[in-house]
Amino acid sequence: MEKSLSKMPAKQYYGLPVDPHDDTLVPTIASNLGPSAMNWYRAFCQHCQAHGLPRTWGLFKTEIRKRYRARDFEFDLRQRLCKLRQHGSYHDYVSEFQNLLIQCLEPISPLEQRFYFQQGLRGDTCCFINDPGTLDEAIDWGSQFENVHFASNRNDGTDRNWTKTATCHRCKEVGHIAPDCPHK
């Protein structure tokens, strides 16, 4: 749990905006911590009690990040965004890109977001996306291109060539099928 803690914000899983002054969420989150983080949490609770501090979400989040996040976390995220490349499906690339982007605490300008996103795309997809206004537009245009481009490639390859290797059930010759058999 500790290794993935820095990668998975609680608000992403709970789906609701979290009030930083809320003190009811912390025990719920803490109940899912691993052994090492649970020991840290006990010390955190003792510190809060000794100093009369409420265990709010904001304080918990700040302190656990101090303890478990690397100091160069934001720099590392930027490097990972910069190095990310589309090797598999477009959907997988978009998901990984958004997963990295949501972890950033320091703001990234819309222009930089589009730059990072487009530079990791396959060449033909990247060329199709021409001056989008937002990252969402770039993602939509890329999705449209991938759907049309790869759907037409699948159809081109399979519809035309399968008859070259087909065997006619009527005359047993290769290159056509029974409805098209010249030996009827």
Description:
The protein folds into two domains: 2-68, no CATH class; 73-165, Non-ribosomal Peptide Synthetase Peptidyl Carrier Protein, Chain A. Mean pLDDT is 82; it is low at 1-8. It starts with a helix and ends in a 19-residue tail after the last helix. The chain is mainly alpha-helical and 184 residues long. It is built from ten helices and no strands. The relative contact order is 0.07.
Low-pLDDT parts are 1-8
Q: What is the end-to-end distance?
A: 70 Å
| CATH classification, class level of the largest domain | Mainly Alpha
Largest sheet: none
Shape: elongated
> What do the pLDDT scores average to?
82
Structural class: mainly alpha
Share of helix among residues? 55-70%
CATH topology of the largest domain: Non-ribosomal Peptide Synthetase Peptidyl Carrier Protein, Chain A
Roughly what fraction of the amino acids lie in strands? under 5%
Question: What is the element string, with H for helices and E for strands?
Answer: HHHHHHHHHH
Organism: Phytophthora megakarya
Keywords: Metal-binding, Zinc, Zinc-finger
Protein name: CCHC-type domain-containing protein
GO molecular function, one term: nucleic acid binding
